[in-house]
Each structure stands twice: as C-alpha cells, then as structure tokens.
Amino acid sequence: MDPVPEQLSVFDTIQPIPATRRAGPLSSIVAEENMQKSGKLAKQRTVCYLAVKDHPGKTAMELAHLCGRHRLDRYAFNRRLSELSKPNVNLVRRGAARLCKITGTLMTTWEAV
Predict the structure, then answer these.
(1) What is the DSSP code string of 11-75?
(2) 5, 41, 60, 69: which has the highest count of C-beta atoms within 10 A?
(3) Is 13 inside a domain boundary?
(4) Shortest CA distance to 83 belongs to which of 33, 3, 13, 15?
(5) Kind of pairing, strands 92-99 and 58-59?
C-alpha cells in the first residue's frame, strides 16, 4: 500500500462522521474532538479506507498487520471501518465472516463500496 499523503483526506471534505455516541462519556467526546482538530482521525480513516480498497476481503486484524507501519491496531481498524460503513458515508461495507488467517477466529471481512 502506498504511503498516505498528508494532503489526501476525503474525510476533510465530506460531512463530519461522528466517532462517538451522542450520549457517550465526556472523555470520549473530548478525545474525538482532539483527534479531529489534530487531523489524526481523518488520517486514520484514510489509512483504513485505502487498506480495504487495496486489500478487499481482509479482516481488521489482517489489515492491521498489512498496515503495521501506520501503527493502527485491529481495534482502531474496526472503529474507523464501522464509521466508514455508516449509511451517510457508505465507503466500505461488511463482507462475509470467515476465519482470520492470523487469529484463527471467526471475524468480519471488509470491502470498499
């Protein structure tokens, strides 16, 4: 996968995607605001989207291993991919569940729309 250019972020130009629940804890809301202001949230979303686009049908764990240099774990991938699959964004979708090649457990796969 190509490195993520600093200027590349489709997520800076579309409607903001809430990462936290409206009734979520204050600490989560503040953390999301900080990530948005720093640009980290948009960069993570870009990395996750490009990973799914380049490697369709992979689990979050497999994607995290493929993109290890970006230091996103499978939990970050699952959070960002879930955000990107919301109906108002619709950039990725959940694929078939299968055994992950890394963990051997049943996991959801992801595909770009």
Answers:
(1) GGTSPP---S-TTS-HHHHHHHHHHHHHTHHHHHHHHHHHHHHHSTTEEHHHHHHHTGGGT--HH
(2) 60
(3) no
(4) 15
(5) unpaired
Count of structural domains, the chain: 1
Structural domain containing residue 106: 25-112
Q: Is 2 contained in some domain?
A: no
The CA radius of gyration of the chain, in Å to the nearest whole number, is 14
93, burial (CB in 10 Å: exposed 0-12, middle 13-18, buried 19+): middle
Q: What pLDDT digit, counting tens, does each position of 67-106 carry?
A: 887 789 999 999 999 999 999 889 999 999 999 999 999 9
Predicted structure pTM score: 0.78
